Amino acid sequence: MWEQIHLLCPLAQPEQILLDFEKGAINSFEHVWPNTVVKCCFFHQTQNTWRHVQSDCTHNRELAMRPLKIPTLEFARPADVPDLFEQVSMDLPLTSEIGELVDYFERTYIGRTLATGHHVAATFPIGLWNYHFSTPFGLPRTTNAVEAWHRSFNATVGCHHPTIWKFLLALKREQGLVEVRQTNYLAGKPPTKRRRSQQSEQVLKTLAGEYYSPNHTKTKFHTSVETISA
């Protein structure tokens, strides 16, 4: 699919793309656009981890989510993530269930160094899901907006197997909506975000700016991000 898009739009050179946690899609995209920054959806990472909590942890699932501290890991400097992950993991009681969950997260998202000194890369390296450097620019971290559009367009079509004429009519309606949004945007009226989302985004940008200040501490950063994400 990516190769066909590249053939249709040979001059397109996206700076960054947001994908789900699917190795096939990631590898094929990087093959076509090797210079594009690939990021994965934060929401799907949390969702994947919660599924493991539900299957592996039969007691106190809320406690089991604590060692992961995904929001904190997402916004910390990538080089700090392994140490931060180890730090928050050590705050948890040592149970076999939580140990299995921590091992899963480490294998999948962090990577590990064996006793022999050999480093085993994560299935999805930190750079794919960490947003420390892109947060100041307000770039999206989830594919929720695209999925919301899919639901809306499916509702417009109204069935799974429309005729070609019904599908074209739905496309014309969608094109009309896009042109209205585009006109509003060019007129200085971009889509509004919820007040809470705007406030959280601004706090995250501030935290990102203060990350390298002398007064920054990992504990303070961790507490601030957890408060926003609660």
UniProtKB/TrEMBL annotation:
- Top-level division of the source organism's lineage: Eukaryota
Organism of provenance: Oopsacas minuta
Supply the name of the protein.
Answer: MULE transposase domain-containing protein
